[in-house]
Amino acid sequence: MHFQPQGPAARTEQVAFDRHELGHILTLYGRMVAAGEWRDYGISHLSEVAVFSIFRRTAEHPIYRVEKRPRLRDRQGQYAVIGMDGRILKRGNDLRAVLRVLERKLIRAVET
After folding, report:
1. Quick one: which of 43, 8, 5 has its CA closest to 22?
2. What is the pLDDT of residue 112?
3. Which helix or strand (DSSP H or E) is residue 83 part of?
4. What is the DSSP string of 22-80?
5. pLDDT at residue 9 tops 60
6. What is the rounded CA–CA span in Å between residue 91 and residue 100?
7. What's the sign of the alpha-carbon dihedral 26, 73, 101, 54?
8. What pLDDT, on the 0 to 100 scale, is given for residue 103?
9. What is the pLDDT of residues 15-42, one digit of tens each?
């Protein structure tokens, strides 16, 4: 006999980054840490969104958030980079293309 949960227990699935997605994000993160721009991160897996938060210092608000919202795949795109002020800096279905908005900041950090 197979039991199907009903009510709130039925909605326990979470959105998460897969290994390849995390690989792309952490590669960029490592380069920015090496450049002295970022120092900490946090990952949240919620029911509708997975969030990779990037911090300049521990115990402050994230300076960027990389979000994955699968429900937006057919609309604006499931990935987004969001700034500290809540503005969407880039959105799309190709994570590497979306992360390029942050790579530009790496180039500026190295040049200065």
Report:
1. 43
2. 52
3. strand 79-83
4. HHHHHHHHHHHHHTTS--EEEEEE-SS-EEEEEESSTTS--SEEEEE-GGGTTTT-SEE
5. no
6. 11
7. negative
8. 85
9. 999 999 999 999 999 999 998 889 999 9
Q: How is residue 88 written in tokens?
A: 């969407």
pLDDT tens profile 57-102: 766 789 999 999 999 898 889 999 999 999 999 999 999 999 999 9
- In sequence order, the 6+-apart residues with CB closer than 8 A to the CB of 91 are 76, 77, 79, 80, 81, 98
Sheet holding 79-83, edge to edge: 40-45, 50-55, 64-68, 79-83, 88-92
Q: Please report the pLDDT score of residue 108 as a whole number.
A: 57
Nearest to 103 by CA among 28, 34, 50: 28
Tokens representing residue 69 in the block: 């919202």
